Amino acid sequence: MTLPNEITHYYSRSDGPFRNLSDLDAKQLAIVLEKLKDRKAKNPAFRRVFGAAYMELRRRTEAKLRDLFIARGGRPRRQSPHYFVLGECAWFAGLYPDPAAVRLDWRSLPRALVSFTYPDSFVSMRLGPQYGLPPEPLRPYHEKVFLLDELADVTARYGMPDGGAGEDYADYHKRTFEKYIEVQVWADDPVTDCLKSGC
Known about the structure:
Blueprint: E1 6-12, H1 26-42, H2 52-71, E2 82-86, H3 90-93, E3 99-105, E4 114-117, H4 121-125, E5 146-147, H5 151-158, E6 182-185, H6 189-197
Antiparallel strand pairs: 1-2, 1-3, 2-6, 4-5, 4-6
């Protein structure tokens, strides 16, 4: 198996890249969540699930991720990361009717600023059942944050998740899924430098 050299950030063209909901204050977040709700009601091709419970779960997941990353020697510069997937994931791109992507070569990123989970951090951190989501079967890579230098070993041991398209997205968040390896970039510099250079 060949390890992908790139990580990919998927986003909706109508929003732009790296629009992190966790960066918003309570008032801004309420406005944005209402807009996202209205947009999805008008166009079901926007398939991502958002809402107040999602944000509470997301923030708790991010706090757990950050603590585990620091415990492993990481030095995050943000409270919440910028999210990528390892390689490509057609399934993730299919969450938007107008998908676009930003790609970075992970080999050039500072090791102290990047972590990854296998698979998605919501699944891996295992807080979902507290919010009514079905429990995932416990796997040896759950509740762990890995460092970039471990990518080859982890993918050799567990393989690459199948992130192919073609699946029904209805209630996807309520089903067991392992679609991708999630990569977390805990600083703005790699992202802003990439956007400036036209990555």
